Amino acid sequence: NAFLGFQKCFQVELLILSHHFYKLSSCLDGVDVLVALAATRVEAYVSEGDFSCLARLITGVGNFHALNFILGILIENGQLDLLLQKYSAAADANAGTAEAVRGFRMAVLTSLKHFNPNDLDAFAMVYNHFDMKHETAALLESRAEQSSEQWFSHYDKDQNEDLLDSMRYYIEAAEVHKSIDAGNKTRRACAQASLVSLQIRMPDFQWLYRSETNARRALV
After folding, report:
1. Looking at the structure, do residues 111 and 152 belong to the same domain, yes or no?
2. Nearest Cα to 208, choosing from 139, 160, 137?
3. 9-37: burial string, b at 16+ Cβ within 10 Å, e else
4. Do 114 and 139 have their domain in common?
5. Transmembrane segments in this chain: where (predicted)?
């Protein structure tokens, strides 16, 4: 088993190196042949559950358009974290350009939207990995709103878990906004967190979705 594992890893590294040199010499026919050959190995790796080799192959070759289906396989099989780790290792080793990083990021997000559009934790992982502050804050606010809506849907005054989640997401969003000097958005997220806090403490009155002015009037 150890020998077979080494053999597969060696095979992957040969494919990556061959692709690299074909690309350097602008031999497009060679690149196409290698991409096709790499694609034929995918089924074997999947059947053996060898996602590490798959992740190394796609991140090493870097042809995210031609081998996009590999991203889908990894994401569908819960291997997003492994994929991101392998890409970071490959980018560090090869001093990945900003353009290459953008290409990979877009390919991963496109695959996520196609295969796992409701996996918010996966999107959060990608946003965090690439330090996408605006997207992170927007996702946190979206999750806060969803949690508030879930509480409204059953409206049980004694069950505050959804509201506590909502308040936490708004506070985290405010912290992210503050880190990029988005003052107005920071204040808005803090105001929403305050309204959720009021809803928890005074559940007999609807505080959520009120403007700051209306909330102050209601308090008075």
Report:
1. no
2. 160
3. eebbeebbebbbebbeeeeeeebeebbee
4. no
5. none
pLDDT, one tens digit per residue, over 96-138 is 678 888 999 999 999 999 999 999 999 999 999 999 999 999 9
CA dist 148 to 121, 123, 212, Å?
Answer: 18, 20, 17
Q: Would you say residue 85 has pLDDT above 80?
A: yes
- Smallest CA-to-CA distance from 70 within 53, 85, 83, 58 is with 58
- Beta-carbon contacts of 155 under 8 Å, excluding residues fewer than 6 positions away, are none
**């007999």: which residue's tokens?**
204
Residues 22 and 115 in one domain: yes
Min mean pLDDT across 28-32, 99-103, 208-212 is at 28-32
Query: Which residue in this structure is represented by tokens 């889908």?
Result: 72
Whole-angstrom Cα distance, residue 57 to residue 50?
11
Q: Provide the domain count of the chain.
A: 2
Whether residues 117 and 197 fall in one domain: no
Span between the terminal Cα atoms of the chain, in Å: 73
Q: Left, alpha or beta for 26 (phi > 0: left; psi -120 to 50: alpha)?
A: left
How far is 151 from 145, CA to CA, in rounded Å?
10
φ, ψ dihedrals at 158, nearest 5°: -90, -5
d(CA 35, CA 181): 44
Residue 192 structural domain = 133-219
